[in-house]
Amino acid sequence: MCTSLTTCEWKKVFYEKMEVAKPADSWELIIDPNLKPSELAPGWKQYVEQHASGRFHCSWCWHTWQSAHVVILFHMHLDRARRMGSVRMRVFKQLCYECGTARQDESSMLEENIEGLVDNLITSLREQCYDEDGGQYRIHVASRPDNRPHRTEFCEACQEGIVHWKPSEKLLEEEATAYTFSEASKPRAQAGSGYNFLSLRWCLFWASLCLLAVYLQFSFRSPAFL
């Protein structure tokens, strides 16, 4: 049973994509808030998403903030004989820096961000569990630029010793350029069917009417002065 909308979305996207990537195997996704980095049972593999983008909401003071430094930890295991796999996942929280409460809050993510993150997870699964070439990992750029320095004292992942990897400026620039190009290539919505009375055509029309009115006015007055 899903504990939140974000959790449900993670599982939905993961199961759909794994059904396509590995239809012969059965995989499960488990949210584990107690997952520890580098503490692996025999046969388990680890993947850390270190540059995810998410939005946090403080349940105490209602402050919200965007972060491009969300860390997600995955532990993965594949039983080749039974063709069953398991992924344990933990999204690290952040403290609210406005009210200073010790309560750590979870992040929410857009569906398109979750899909990209699941693609990265499947790439790691292919490499570590199937010994395949998983392909290229996606670099995620926050929907809103965040130029503020990362405050490690408010980050749960930093407190547990996970060193964030910051993508190079070149990779970020390439990803941002690709995103901008894809957005520009989308067909724009058609303008409304209502008339725009400030358009050039209407301005010329009303100007013509005014000139005609002036002409007719002087035409009717001219015999009186003869």
Automatic annotation (TrEMBL):
Compartmental location: Membrane
SMART domains, sorted: zf-3CxxC
Keyword Zinc-finger: yes
Keywords: Membrane, Metal-binding, Transmembrane, Transmembrane helix, Zinc, Zinc-finger
InterPro entries: R-trans_p, ZAR1/RTP1-5-like_Znf-3CxxC
Membrane-crossing residue ranges in chain numbering: 198-218
Main localization of the protein described in the UniProt heading: membrane
Database matches in Pfam families: Zn_ribbon_3CxxC (PF13695)
Membrane topology listed for this record: Single-pass membrane protein
GO terms for cellular component: cell surface; membrane
Annotated GO biological process: detection of chemical stimulus involved in sensory perception of bitter taste; protein insertion into membrane; protein targeting to membrane
Stretches assigned to the 3CxxC-type domain: 51-161
GO MF annotations, alphabetized: olfactory receptor binding; zinc ion binding
Protein name: Receptor transporter protein 2
Record organism: Macaca nemestrina (Pig-tailed macaque)
Organism classification: Eukaryota, Metazoa, Chordata, Craniata, Vertebrata
